[in-house]
Design goal:
It contains 3 helices and 4 strands, in the order αααββββ. It folds into 2 domains: 36 residues; 50 residues. The chain has a 4-stranded antiparallel β-sheet, with helices on one face. 11% of the residues are buried. The protein is elongated. By secondary structure, the protein is α+β, with helices and mostly antiparallel strands. Strand 3 and strand 4 form a beta hairpin.
Amino acid sequence: MYGTSTVIRTGLGAAFALALFAGTIAFAPGLASDARADPCLATDKIDGSTAEQAMKTMEAAGYVRPHDLKKGCDNFWYGQATKDGTTVDVVLPLGGQPFTTHNS
């Protein structure tokens, strides 16, 4: 009898712990994504450019409604915009002009 009830209690405790852990992951997506999304090295030097500045530069080059802008460790801005009526992936290199990537 003791062996069976111990196994049941242990199984329920493990199931509860697993459910609690899964709930934590589901309600804290930033924890999981931050760990994977930060491939920058400690030696990478990130400049002070902003998404607003990148958006204005892209718009001045003819890209419409740039969005989902993300800055890479290379200081390039990556995002999407509309160009000539088509949604494209756009890249803005440091100090350069925006361009449409080859896979757009």
